[in-house]
# Entry
Amino acid sequence: MTDGGDHGDHHEEHGSELSEMQLRVRALETVLAEKGYLDPAALDLMIEAYETRIGPHNGARVVARAWIDAAFRSALIEDATKAVQSFGLINRVGDHLIAVENTPTLHNMIVCTLCSCYPWEVLGLPPVWYKSAPYRSRAVNDPRGVLADFGLTLAPDTQIRVWDSTAETRFIVLPMRPAGTDGWSEEKLAALVTRDCMIGTGLPKQPNEVA
# Structure
């Protein structure tokens, strides 16, 4: 854990141009497909699964359950890997998924300074900016500035804690439940949970932002 990403790449994924790395990956996919080593249809199904069925929707369900079920919340904080297994989610890295909880005085943020380790099973595919060198370095050295880049300004007295993922240990942020959601169902609450709030670079949506 450290206390300390430029999200200059934050909007890249929304553009029409492919990055150099994306172009190289596309070229490699083409070569492998032509040689018969790769089935493009199978690859598309795998990507679609991570984008639509495997997190961040799964992570949103986990967070929503923790918001309405105190016993599950305690179990999640105590042993996140075991807790998420109740959703049928198995972490590929084994027994090392950790949930860190935001409070009115503490904000958590996730980074992987060495590469881009990420809990795919609960958060889906990692965003482009998460893997960028600027984010990985600045998240540690200037976390408050990084959050400001994402449009998130915290109170000056809010402590920011940065958690460094590794190949053995991954993290998920349990954000604070938005006010005005008393009586909401788990499904409705899950609609408030975003990928970024589970990384710590954003907050959940407000009730007036969902139908």
Observations:
- The chain has ten helices and four strands.
- The two ends are 38 Å apart (CA to CA).
